[in-house]
Amino acid sequence: MPQLDFANPLMTTTLLWLFLIFGALYFVLKSYALPRVATVLENRAARIRADLDAAQAAQREGEAALAELRAATAAARAEAQATVAAAMADAQAKASAQAEAINARLAAQVDEAEARVRAARDAAMGALREVAGSTAQAMLARLGVSAPARTVTAAVDRAAKQGAR
């Protein structure tokens, strides 16, 4: 290779300048440029570490807030269920009280109606006894038998008692 002809006197000066330029470049890079790049890389790594730590802290805070939210939701749900249960019990108690009041009123009305029916039945039975007594007197008179009214009434009463059994 003709470029590396060491017999040429210019070659030694070229090599000398090569070593001087690369030496100076190495010294400048080592002394000034590379420390600045290293500082920038260290700052960047520190910032990334700080951001990761902040993200992990925020994640822990978020998980804690989520756990707190879930606990608050569960407590609110339990409270709501208790309130609903209390309202249901109160409504059932009121409905039961109203049903008892209605039942008592209906029972009183039924008792009144039964008393009126008994009174009407007794009045009808009384009228029926009178009619039966008059009819029995009329039949006996047609047959030509005379009987005292007291005897005929007693016979009608006995017949009514036997029919009632």
UniProtKB/TrEMBL annotation:
The keyword Transmembrane helix applies. GO terms for cellular component: endomembrane system; plasma membrane; proton-transporting ATP synthase complex. It is found in: Cell membrane; Endomembrane system. Keywords: ATP synthesis, Cell membrane, CF(0), Coiled coil, Hydrogen ion transport, Ion transport, Membrane, Transmembrane, Transmembrane helix, Transport. Residues 38-72, 96-130 form a coiled coil. It is a single-pass membrane protein. InterPro entries: ATP_synth_b/b'su_bac/chlpt, ATP_synthase_B_chain. GO terms for molecular function: proton-transporting ATP synthase activity, rotational mechanism; proton-transporting ATPase activity, rotational mechanism. The chain crosses the membrane at residues 6-29. Its main location: membrane. F-type ATPases have 2 components, F(1) - the catalytic core - and F(0) - the membrane proton channel. F(1) has five subunits: alpha(3), beta(3), gamma(1), delta(1), epsilon(1). F(0) has three main subunits: a(1), b(2) and c(10-14). The alpha and beta chains form an alternating ring which encloses part of the gamma chain. F(1) is attached to F(0) by a central stalk formed by the gamma and epsilon chains, while a peripheral stalk is formed by the delta and b chains. Component of the F(0) channel, it forms part of the peripheral stalk, linking F(1) to F(0). The b'-subunit is a diverged and duplicated form of b found in plants and photosynthetic bacteria. Belongs to the ATPase B chain family. This is ATP synthase subunit b. The lineage of its organism: Bacteria, Pseudomonadati, Pseudomonadota, Alphaproteobacteria, Acetobacterales.
